[in-house]
Each structure stands twice: as structure tokens, then as C-alpha cells.
Amino acid sequence: MEKSTRVGAQIYGYSVCLVAVITFLISMTGLVNAILDLGDPLHSGYTPPGSPSLASYENYKLDVMKSFGQSTAGNKESYMPDETSLKAMYEAARSEKITKVRHDSNKAILLSGLMIFIAAILFISHWKWMQRVSKS
Fold first, then answer.
1. What are the sequence ranges of the domains in the chain?
2. How distant, in Å, are the alpha carbons of 48, 101, 103, 113 from that of 34?
3. Within 13 Å and on the Cβ side, how many CA atoms surround 91?
4. Do 133 and 10 form a contact (C-beta atoms < 8 A)?
5. What is the pLDDT confidence band of residue 47, given thresholds at 50, 70 and 90?
6. Other CB atoms closer than 10 Å to residue 17's CB: what's the count?
7. What average pLDDT does the segment 33-52 reach?
8. Among 11, 35, 84, 118, whose Cα sits 20 to 30 Å from the Cα of 72?
9. Is 121 exposed, middle or buried (0-12, 13-18, 19+ CB in 10 A)?
């Protein structure tokens, strides 16, 4: 009876260690991706198709002019924002994208870091426990 209890404990202990290692590896991937996204927030994350490019003001202006031309093709009177309005629109869109990516990256860094910490604690505690069980 003692031997079957010990075998069950070993299966449980090594299973927890295996799951902790897998969780650690997956969380490290998320952590590295979030750190890379923080390095270049304008080019990371999801950009919906058809949205204007935020790479530069000139690209943004060209994309907005194209979209205004397509949406008002049937209209003889089309509205085209002036240069200062376009610049303000670009700065607002750029700022919003940077803020969103930074928030998402910081959240991912916090969650991945927490998962790495928990996985490390679980692994260390169960590994030490398994060493004690195998000695007895």
C-alpha cells in the first residue's frame, strides 16, 4: 500500500513539474512578444484593413485623401479637411495607436511575468518534494 501511494505521489509531482515547464515556456513567448511590441508600437498589433497608414504623415494624408475620394465619388460637393485638420487627425490616430499598444503590452508583460513566477514556484516546490519522496 505504501508503494502505490508513493508512485501516485511521484506521478502527480512530476506532472506538475511538466505543466510548470510548459507554462513557463509559453509565458516566456508572450513576454518576449510584448517587449518587442513596446519597442515599436506603431507597427505592432492588429491594423484593420482599409485603415490609414500611421507610418508617416504623408502616408496617412494619401490614404485619407483616397478614402474621401471614394466615399464621395457620387457627390459633386466633397469635403476635404485642410492641412491642419489632417495633421491633427494624424496625431490623434497615432497617439491612440501608441497608447493602446503600450497598454496591451504592459498588461501582457504583467500577466506573463506573473505566470512565469507561479510556474517557477510550483516547479521548485514540487521538484524538491519529489527529491524527498524518492529518497524515502
1. 2-135
2. 20, 9, 10, 11
3. 6
4. yes
5. confident
6. 19
7. 87
8. 84
9. exposed
